[in-house]
Amino acid sequence: MSEWLNRLITLEQLNVPCVLVTVAVVDGSAPREAGAKMVVTLAESTGSIGGGELEFQAIQIARRMLKGRTEPALRRFPLGPALGQCCGGHVTLLFEPRQAENFTVALFGAGHVGRALANILGTLACRVRWIDPRPDAFPDHVAPNISVEVSPTPERDVASLPDGAWVIVMTHNHALDLGIVARALQEGRFGYVGLIGSGTKRARFEKRFRELGIAEERIAALVCPIGIGGITGKQPGEIAIAAAADILRRREAMLAGLPLEEAEA
User: What is this structure's pTM?
Assistant: First the structure.
């Protein structure tokens, strides 16, 4: 069995999102024949479609798809000076995202609780965009389904999230928390918007949201404090477990088409 197929089977068993890249059409001279394949995740690639700039660009396209677009796509590449390859022909690549069972979680914040929550999310059937402005806040290694993103303006990254994403905000700065949550509520297109903090923090933020003109129904949709009831511990791991459990129960209720109260009955 080929290396790329072995890796694809493993990734699908682990429910890790990936893109299968295939040389669909070859016109003229090209480094690989039609049917050559490569599997790309957010962290690695397996197999080859010819190497060089063509393969580099294909990997970048595949990783952008994993962060947003989910439909298959065809792209045609001229193998000339623009790609630094002298084959002279043209190659058409087919990009096939394999992530149907996953949902996107946008985790803003890489502090103690953020790290603990990322460890849990790394074991679940989801793809995670983990965003923080501090490059040294992230661990050296993360699970394959997690994309680490160092961003100087995390609130602007809200616009790049896919519809239906689950947004969790727990940064090191209250003003940053406010900006991210305000953007998420204003867009009103996410499956969940959760904010770490107390009831007092929520009340203070609600006042600012109203000043910004955010509709009451969107403010009411904010989950704050986060976490499933009955867990009172304050250690990062305990908060992370409570938050992850609440996300899972809410998602199951949504997929079943039931109000949260009925799904728990």
Answer: 0.65
